[in-house]
Write a structure and sequence with these properties.
The protein is α+β, with helices and mostly antiparallel strands. 31% of the residues lie in helices and 11% in strands. The protein has 3 helices and 2 strands; from the N terminus they run H-H-E-H-E. The chain is globular and about 40 Å long. The two termini are 14 Å apart.
Length: 90
């Protein structure tokens, strides 16, 4: 994700909690026109998109194909997004 973002001149950030505070800080500092693409399980996606709505940050969500987060499993594990997604040739 960070490589794809860098190719397009976009920043990539990782957030676990307190998305609203992070969004406001990014808007205040470097990203006045901030928008968000969230990649997460349904639980984190819903809360993150609600928190983006507060400071007026446009958001789009990409659901993971399996929830392996620490709030879903006793032992978290790495998971992938749907593998058929394509970023195009550029």
């Amino acid at each position: 994700m960070t490589v794809a973002a860098a190719k397009r001149g976009a920043g990539a950030f990782f957030a676990i909690r307190d998305h609203g505070r992070q969004f406001r800080r990014l808007q205040r500092d470097r990203f006045k026109d901030l928008s968000v693409i969230g990649v997460a399980c349904i639980w984190m996606m819903a809360s993150g998109m609600r928190e983006a709505e507060g400071p007026g940050v446009p958001s789009q969500g990409v659901l993971l194909n399996y929830c392996g987060c620490d709030h879903w499993a006793d032992e978290p594990h790495v998971i992938d997004t749907v593998p058929s997604a394509s970023w195009g040739s550029s």
